[in-house]
Amino acid sequence: MSLTNLVNDPAPGLREAKHRPVQALFRPEIQGLRAIAVAAVVLYHFWPKQLSGGYVGVDIFFVISGYLITSHMYREIVRTSSIDLLKFWARRVRRLLPASFLVLFASLVGVFLWVPSTVWEVSARQLAASAFYVQNWVLANDSVDYSAQHNDATVAQHYWSLSVEEQFYVVWPLLVLGLLYFLPKLAGSKGPASAAPSPRSILIGGLAVIGAASLAYSMAVTALAPSMAYFVTPARVWEFAAGALVALVFLERTLDGRVATVLGWAGIGLIAGSAFMFTAETPFPGWTAVIPVGGTVLILMVSGTGTPAGTRWWLSSRGMTFVGGISYSLYLWHWPVLIVAPYVMGRPLGLLDKCLLLALVVLLSWLTKITVEDPLRTGGFLSTPRRAYSFAASGMAMTLVLSVALTSFAFAGSDGESAQVNSPCYGPGALNPANNCDPVTGAGVPDPAPAVVARQNTEPLYKGCQGDFSGTDLVSCDFGVEESQATATVALVGDSHATAWLPAIEVLAERHKWHVKTYTKGSCPLTAALRVLPSEATDRNQADCWSWGKKLQEKLAADKKVKTIFTAAYSTAYTYKSAPGVELRDPAVEGFTAVWKGLLASGKRVVAFDDVPRTNGQYVPTCLATNSGDPLACATTVDKAIPKGTAITHAAADLKAPGFTRIPLRNEFCDAKLCYPQLGAVIVYRDYSHISAEYSRALAPFVDRQLS
To answer: DSSP label at 285?
Structure first.
């Protein structure tokens, strides 16, 4: 049955609802609850160390939305026996999109004027995704995509929660109507019509089941893939359902009296405790999200007393309702201002800077509310669904066009092909004193441009050729000449830093007629030790990495065609410990040498690259674009770039065995004082640690000399 027919011929439960009017109840304390939510998020973003769990403010918003929207829909169902979907969605457009588009357009201008071109592409992609309200899915994909995981934060990153809300607004009324249509039909087929459940009972039961399923999913996916779980919509549906159930159970009524007062303050305590005690390491939004969600539910359930002893008195105060009234615009504006301001000021933000910016954000939010939000929500310009939908489509289309234009500008005038590639001062050759290269960084702008190099983070050269964090599958790709025609078959193994050497290996494969097999896995060095990554919330990936390494060692040892194995790792990113049943005195070093000795014993030649020098922690292309004309501003002193005891370098230096070759790298990145972000007009790193494809290729002759 179509939605139109459902309105004209409602199910039995819908007809029954006509006779039970429900009056809307204005609750000013909800504005105060919004104020708490937005304050938690904004203060967390401005001062993350002081309010480490302020991200729970988003969950408060989700519960409030579930409560208010479900209340509104149920009143309409009682009054009309259905929901006018076109008018419902048009109201959401009038309420949300004018301010949203304003901030998106302002953010586009801010990025173009002040943000380095290296960030334009990812910013444009996320701005467009935000306009179409799929930003959360873009970020969820990036969170499990190793090449995109460490992208710079963009001006639109905070739109992920608005995307979740908009998806809720689209799907929730359809879900409610579906429950009210199909469940009475199902009940009617099994008994008399008089036994059909009421609409309220149907919704409470149906939404409770949906909420429980979403919570179970949220707990499971948070345990398995916490970064992705934070953004995906199904992991958040139960929070909306929690608010919806309060609306349906209480039907605009609230608890009052002393017990209600205690419950209200308990709710405040749960929210405050979450905001102050949760951290980035807290598994979220699994079972831990029940705490702030439960606190919000308690506050929605009660009215308490009208005195300062009750939460309602405080939440309904003028200051709280003012902040709650501008909370939507405040959420929209605070993040792009915080992201763009350091580029405008040319330095990191201090305490005074942040306080002034916070005042600016409040002013912008108030002005947006009185000049954009309120006039377009209540005025005639968007008063009909046709106008509202035309406005939405126009805003989305304009954002998309401007985003595409921004990306085009980022790469204008740079094809990524360097005309200096045959110069002795190209790339690492600039550090050779015999070449008399001055300056060693190269004259003029880098070639290719920073934006082109940074693009390697969002568009990997070898997509699909590197295993994900989770899983133990041996992902492999083949390069070079056909194996039947090759002079030798070689393998490249290790983590993403090994993948970064593939452009150099390809050059060598073409020169020597090699066939190349790759076996790499994100954040997984090939070692007999357990690698420990402090940022991981569970040890699942650690166990998968170790199992992957065991499988790979067995495969390589058994593969008689593979004669040489190249290996590399970002070994300073990890700490190491002995694996179960494998006692190592020095796991960091012996883990690598144990693997190498095993491969040597199987008749292979092993070639190990030193750790590449560390950078100052910034994305190098972005730093160079920000400091155009002064590449040394992005350089790192030797003592910081090459710390003592880097595991793979130490292991390679210790192992003296026939068939083993170490590839030292210091002289191709550094002189006596500095390690460079740019050499011979070539950008050395594509991000903060991985060498760029151009620099990898430029290093091929230097690697070749070490092999001979």
So the answer is: S
